[in-house]
Design brief:
This protein is mainly alpha-helical. It has twelve helices and no strands. Helix 3 runs antiparallel to helix 4, helix 4 packs antiparallel against helix 5 and helix 11 packs across helix 12.
C-alpha cells in the first residue's frame, strides 16, 4: 500500500509506472515474435551490442539513448542478415557482436573525460531515474513498433511460420525478417531503462512464453503478453519499493514466477483433461 500512496505524491514513481506501461506494449508484441521464432539468442546479441552505442555517445557528449537506438538498429540488421546467410557460423558471429559490443561500450565509457558514468545503471537498469524525455522517446518507439506491426502483420506472420509459402506469395522474406529484427532492437532499447542490458532477454521472453501457454493465436498471444508484461513490471516495481530491492531484478523474478505458474497450471489442466478422457 505504501507504493500506491507514494505514487500519488512522487513524480519519479509516476514516470516509472508510465515507463512500465510503455515498455510492456513493445515487450508484449515483439516478445511474442521472439518466442514463436525462437530467436532469443539473437535478441541477446542485439541487447549487449547496444552498450557500444551508449558508450560512444557518452564519449562524444551526445544522447546515450540515441546512441542505443542507432546501434540497436545496426546490430539488428546485421544479426538478422547473419541469421539468414551464415547459419553455420551464426553462434560464433553473434557471440562476437555480444562480447565486442560490451567491450567497446565499457572502453568508451571509462575514457569519457570529466564524467563518471554508473555502468550498473545500464547493466541492471534503474527505472526510478526515467525522465520525462525518456517517456517521450519510449512513446515514439512504441508508436513505430505498433504501427509497423499493424501494417505488416500478415507478412510477419507468414515469414514467421511458413517461409516457403511466403516466398510463393511473393513476400520478401529477407526484408521482413531484417525489419522484424530491427523492431526487436527498438524493443531492447525500450527495456534497457526498466531492467538493464543483462536482464532484457528475460523480460522480452518470459511474459510472451507465459502467454503462449494459454493463447491460441499470435494476435491473442500479443494481447495476453502485453497484459502480463504490465502485471509483472508494475507488480515488480511495487514489490521492490517497500523493502528497497533492485526494481529490475524484482521485475524479472516476478516474470519468472508467473511463467512457472503458467507452465504448471497448463500441465495440470492437460493432466486432468487426459484423466477425464480416459474415463
Amino acid at each position: 500500500m505504501d507504493f500506491f500512496f507514494a505514487l500519488l505524491d512522487y513524480k519519479f514513481l509516476q514516470n516509472a509506472v508510465i515507463a512500465c506501461l510503455l515498455a510492456s506494449v513493445g515487450c508484449g508484441i515483439m516478445g511474442s515474435y521472439v518466442v514463436v521464432k525462437r530467436i532469443g539468442f539473437l535478441a541477446g546479441g542485439i541487447a549487449h551490442t547496444v552498450l557500444a552505442g551508449m558508450g560512444i555517445a557518452y564519449f562524444l557528449d551526445a544522447s546515450p539513448v540515441l546512441g542505443a537506438v542507432i546501434t540497436a538498429l545496426i546490430a539488428g540488421a546485421c544479426i538478422g542478415w547473419i541469421n539468414l546467410h551464415w547459419k553455420q557460423n551464426e553462434d560464433i558471429l553473434i557471440a562476437a557482436f555480444w562480447s565486442v559490443g560490451m567491450a567497446v561500450g565499457i572502453l568508451f565509457i571509462t575514457r569519457t573525460p570529466g564524467y563518471s558514468v554508473d555502468l550498473m545503471s545500464y547493466l541492471f537498469g534503474n527505472i526510478l531515474l526515467v525522465s520525462s524525455g525518456d517517456i517521450v522517446l519510449m512513446t515514439v518507439l512504441d508508436f513505430v513498433i505498433v504501427v509497423t506491426v499493424i501494417l505488416f502483420y500478415k507478412q510477419f506472420l507468414a515469414a514467421t511460420f511458413d517461409e516457403e509459402f511466403a516466398r510463393l506469395r511473393g513476400i520478401n522474406i529477407e526484408g521482413f525478417y531484417i525489419l522484424l529484427m530491427c523492431l526487436v532492437a527498438l524493443t531492447v532499447v525500450l527495456l534497457i531503462q526498466i531492467v538493464g542490458l543483462i536482464l532484457v532477454i528475460a523480460l522480452l521472453t518470459l511474459p510472451a512464453a507465459s502467454a503462449a501457454q494459454v493463447a491460441g493465436s499470435v494476435s491473442r498471444m500479443m494481447v495476453v503478453s502485453v497484459l502480463l508484461s504490465i502485471f509483472v513490471t508494475v507488480g515488480g516495481l511495487a514489490i521492490s519499493y517497500g523493502p528497497d530491492l533492485p526494481a529490475g531484478a524484482t521485475i524479472v523474478i516476478t516474470a519468472g514466477i508467473v511463467y512457472a505458474f503458467s507452465v504448471m497450471g497448463t500441465r495440470l489442466i492437460r493432466y486432468r483433461q487426459n484423466l477425464g478422457n480416459s474415463d
